[in-house]
Amino acid sequence: MSTSMESFASVTTGKESLAPVAEGQVKDSESAKGFMGQLMNTTVRIHISDGRIITGQLWCFDQLRNAILLNCHETRVSAGPDQHRPLGPLVMVPGKHILKFEASRSASEAAAAAKYQEGDGPAGE
């Protein structure tokens, strides 16, 4: 699977609800939960507040935006070459440190399409 930055669609987290993603719009917490549920078991990248990027398979998340990832590694972006290291089979990323959440473009588009077909997309309003 390609992990170039262009192949990932991002969701920036903050105090507000999630930003628009792929072809669909995430408008409320129920839509956001459904969209995130569609991303389960896909490869994601999470940018955290100290500058690291955690990459792994999304296993679960909770109301506080804590995410649990499987088979993770971290990337430290610096002026020199990026540094990579494995983190282990199961990692919890605290939601309060998540700045940006990225999923592979194919996974995020599939999740948006699934929500669109369920009537949560622009045509179902």
UniProtKB/TrEMBL annotation:
One Gene Ontology cellular component annotation held by this UniProt entry: NatC complex
Domain of life, per lineage: Eukaryota
Domain Sm: 34-103
InterPro entries linked to this entry: LSM_dom_sf (IPR010920), LSMD1_Sm (IPR034110), Sm_dom_euk/arc (IPR001163), snRNP_SmB/NAA38-like (IPR050914)
Pfam annotation, one family: LSM
Listed name of the protein: Sm domain-containing protein
Provenance organism: Polarella glacialis
Organism classification: Eukaryota, Sar, Alveolata, Dinophyceae, Suessiales
